[in-house]
Request: fold
Amino acid sequence: MDKKIAVVTGSSSGFGFMTSIELAKCGYYVIATMRNTEKFSQLLERAEQLGVRDLIYVLELDVTSQVSIHHWRDFMRTLGRIDVLVNNAGFAGAGFVEEIPLDEYRKQFETNVFGVIAVTQAVLPLMREQRKGRIINISSISGRIGFPGLSPYISSKHALEGWSEALRFEMKPFGVDVVLVEPGSFQTSIWTSGKHVTKKSLDEKSPYYEMMKKLEEHIEKGASKFGDPTEVAQLIAKIAQKKQTRMRYMIGKGVKTAVFVKNILPWKLWERIFLRQLK
Reply:
């Protein structure tokens, strides 16, 4: 194949959906992977409308399944090359730490961390042998700033950030770039159908119930101001084509300011300002 090949995980909706479209518009042959391929029709319909249907191939991939990863690795060998990998598949676990079963933390990490590692490990031999490639990991402002009531998601994104830094150092000598994209709040399903709140924190008898309600109200109140996910997809497509990259790309209203302020303020002052915002 003479076209560059891009792989996008979690392509059934949100950033993955939009990124698959944007990369195809840029001329990439896109392997759009998703856990449930019954959701592929909307993606292909949109691609058809934009005249890039022939540049998108939908493939089933469950990043938490070793069997699925094994089939994925075999498929990649038939391609012979991968130029860009966008690790996007993920969901948001929520609730308060005291009430969240360890199994829910494990499920969160299986997708958001170990799933990313598994997919990346399958791609690395090809990119290393090519001595070129780009791995774009979709993190979040949650990978830089902690929020109450979202500890499974927050901790998984913090882990992804550290792992990505280590991987960038390891792969740089082989011509492979590793990049983090850190969106703020955008209009994707991760805060609706993609959010998994532990049952106990939704129980009216929970000591955290009122806090959970306030947190959800805070998210819902700001939803109308969430950004257009197409902006993130367009950024990812630009990063894919850059000659040189930096480690992190923040995007979204107030994201850069929030990270800057957190980094320069003493913790006590940052904590006071942050909690006041939640009230």
About this structure: The domain at 5-254 is CATH 3.40.50.720 (Rossmann fold). The chain has a mean pLDDT of 92. The chain is about 50% helix and 15% strand. The chain has one domain: 5-254.
